[in-house]
Amino acid sequence: DRDEALVKENGLWGVIDKKGRYIIDPQFEVMRNDGKWFQIKSKENLWGWCDLDGEIVIAPRFEKAFGFFDGDRAPVLFEGKWAYIDRKGIVVIKPQFDRALPFVGNLAAVWVGNYIGFINREGRYEINPQYNGLSRDYEANAVWGISCYERVTTGKK
């Protein structure tokens, strides 16, 4: 259990300890607990991460971002396409997706146009984009439960 809490004051988010003292002064438009770090949204409307002391570990430079929910990759919107970064902020799977979700286990759902596929942590397709809907369920051991609504076929062989 951690001893801090996210708090909002005058429209900005910060972090207090269990005695109500600020650990990180309110300075972020949005702040989310991301396990090891905090995901932050700057006043410039860009996403990044800071550590538990408020030190920036990944500078806010992404248009949108999800957290490092399952380890070492986070999806980020970068130059109009979704990519994945590592915990150093380095793009490890290049911007190429129209939408992307965090990894659960070793797979992440990605959209190419209207079609959904699944990539592994190296960015290679395990399931090519071919579905037009999905539902996901997280189980206690963090694995995908996938129900694909409709497989899209082109009639091409």
Automatic annotation (TrEMBL):
Q: Which InterPro entries match?
A: WG_beta_rep (IPR032774)
Per its UniProt record, what SUPFAM superfamilies does this chain match?
A: Cell wall binding repeat
- Record protein name field: WG repeat-containing protein
Q: What species was this sequence derived from?
A: Coprobacter fastidiosus
